[in-house]
Backbone:
């Protein structure tokens, strides 16, 4: 067995600590708040600074893989010994597969020029070589820095969605273009001393499947890149993301502010579960900033939470103004950006502390996986992550792979869905059998100008009211040939539902009306079908009523 002679002069690995609830929850600064800048040196508003801090492994991204043939051959059976940080070299890295004889020199000058680290892989040792000059590069994150800027060749969100977390380095040694699925419930240690090294933070490992997985880490880094976040936590569903966020950030006896229009299950959790811990809520109209200021002045608000756009009426919240008002009073701001996607709206860049998504929807994009995610500063996400490690709700790595795959076409899908939804919203608004259309891209929408300011696209979902009663509306829905009658949205296939029946059937007509859910309301999620086909289908369905 060949053993590397490289000096272990490389900075030590850093792995996540055990869950710790002894400290106080980080809160935003009274004036500026906890936020993450998404602007680059040129002043561009597009978020280009992406963190790697959700990785258990803290390796500078520019280093060369020096792998033995056996280690590379064994990478399909990935355990602790084979999970090593691997990165594609960029212009500042040394050439691939630098000979070991040339990597380490006995002279002081050579030692200063090159730093190396040995990583155990199976029963052989893997060496990674880094030039010290790379530490001064602006695209490199070193220990203690706040983020990493992706290479200049990734200038668009579409490219980032494809390559982030993968092309520029992932924590799995492989030459495969696609990220491997690591199906394991636990990670082994070769000997007790390795376990002790891990416990004392001299060795990196996930230890147990609930605490992390190399495949899910790739997904977390990809989402962080799109959101301009320091860290992302991926969990088993969108509701899992929302609920663990509430439980981790709002103390017993705390107070939150939320909005009237929101996903029903979120409302149920706020109204029935949080009160069991003494947590109360103020509910305001999404546009009522006066009501928000009143709540902030009268109560010790811990968190403002809303969707933007909201479900199902697609109301928009002024994220920048809300963040300013809340941060002045020490309250956190969390935005559910599921309807917007990170391509249409950058909530963190607008001032929010956290952004959550149901990755089941547009991020996954194929109606074949359940997942949720929370992105934001490492200090906040780590608090949520620690509770998540206790509660469970870990995402299966196979599901993580499906979302990674789905996100590679995210920009293509969202472009088509944005276009189809806007064009159809305009047609629906002019149709004599439609009473009202709810879509932020229409001038008739109450937050149209706000949406134009904080969104680059208006999303793929349109809600509208048919000129008729419950049965007439159901007849229209049944006459549609392309969309599936189903809950959810954001997939390649168009989906339609009548909320009065799909989501609120257990409530009386009058109780539904309290939430604005009328019998004739339709929510239409446009897929990626050809626009003309969808248009013809909707128009022929109207002919049936």
Residues:
């Amino acid at each position: 067995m060949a053993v590397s002679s490289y000096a272990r002069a490389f900075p030590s690995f850093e792995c996540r600590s055990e869950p710790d609830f002894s400290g106080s929850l980080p809160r935003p600064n009274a004036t500026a708040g906890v936020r993450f800048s998404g602007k680059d040196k040129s002043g561009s508003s597009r978020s280009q600074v992406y963190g790697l801090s959700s990785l258990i492994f803290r390796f500078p991204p520019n280093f060369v893989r020096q792998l033995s043939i056996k280690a590379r051959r064994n990478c399909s059976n990935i355990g602790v010994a084979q999970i090593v940080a691997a990165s594609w070299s960029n212009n500042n890295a040394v050439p691939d597969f630098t000979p070991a004889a040339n990597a380490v020199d006995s002279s002081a000058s050579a030692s200063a020029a090159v730093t190396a680290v040995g990583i155990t892989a199976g029963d052989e040792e893997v060496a990674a070589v880094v030039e010290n000059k790379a530490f001064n590069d602006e695209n490199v994150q070193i220990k203690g820095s706040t983020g990493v800027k992706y290479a200049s060749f990734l200038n668009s969100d579409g490219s980032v969605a494809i390559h982030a977390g993968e092309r520029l380095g992932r924590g799995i040694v492989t030459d495969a273009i696609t990220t491997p699925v690591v199906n394991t419930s636990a990670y082994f240690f070769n000997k007790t001393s390795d376990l002790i090294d891990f416990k004392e933070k001299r060795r990196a490992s996930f230890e147990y499947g609930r605490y992390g997985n190399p495949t899910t880490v790739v997904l977390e880094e990809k989402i962080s890149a799109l959101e301009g976040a320091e860290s992302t936590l991926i969990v088993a569903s969108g509701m899992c993301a929302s609920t663990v966020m509430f439980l981790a950030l709002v103390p017993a006896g705390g107070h939150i502010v939320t909005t009237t229009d929101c996903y029903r299950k979120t409302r149920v959790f706020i109204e029935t579960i949080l009160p069991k811990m003494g947590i109360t809520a103020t509910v305001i109209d999404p546009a009522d900033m006066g009501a928000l200021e009143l709540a902030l002045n009268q109560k010790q608000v811990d968190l403002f939470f809303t969707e933007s756009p909201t479900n199902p009426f697609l109301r928009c919240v002024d994220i920048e103004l809300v963040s300013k008002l809340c941060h002045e009073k020490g309250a956190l701001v969390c935005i559910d950006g599921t309807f917007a996607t990170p391509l249409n709206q950058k909530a963190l860049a607008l001032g929010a502390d956290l952004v959550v998504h149901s990755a089941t929807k547009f991020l996954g994009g194929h109606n074949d996986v359940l997942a949720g995610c929370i992105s934001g500063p490492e200090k906040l996400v780590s608090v949520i992550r620690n509770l998540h490690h206790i509660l469970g709700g870990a995402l299966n790595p196979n599901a993580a792979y499906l979302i990674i795959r789905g996100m590679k076409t995210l920009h293509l899908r969202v472009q088509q869905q944005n276009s189809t939804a806007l064009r159809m919203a305009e047609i629906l608004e002019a149709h004599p059998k439609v009473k009202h259309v709810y879509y932020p891209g229409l001038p008739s929408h109450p937050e149209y100008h706000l949406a134009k300011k904080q969104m680059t696209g208006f999303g793929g979902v349109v809600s509208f009211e048919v000129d008729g009663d419950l049965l007439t509306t159901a007849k229209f829905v049944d006459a549609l040939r392309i969309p599936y009658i189903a809950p959810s949205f954001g997939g390649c296939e168009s989906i339609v539902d009548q909320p009065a029946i799909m989501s609120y059937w257990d409530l009386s007509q009058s109780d539904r009306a309290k939430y604005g859910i009328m019998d004739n309301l339709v929510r239409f999620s446009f897929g990626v079908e050809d626009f003309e086909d969808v248009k013809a289908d909707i128009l022929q369905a109207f002919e049936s009523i």
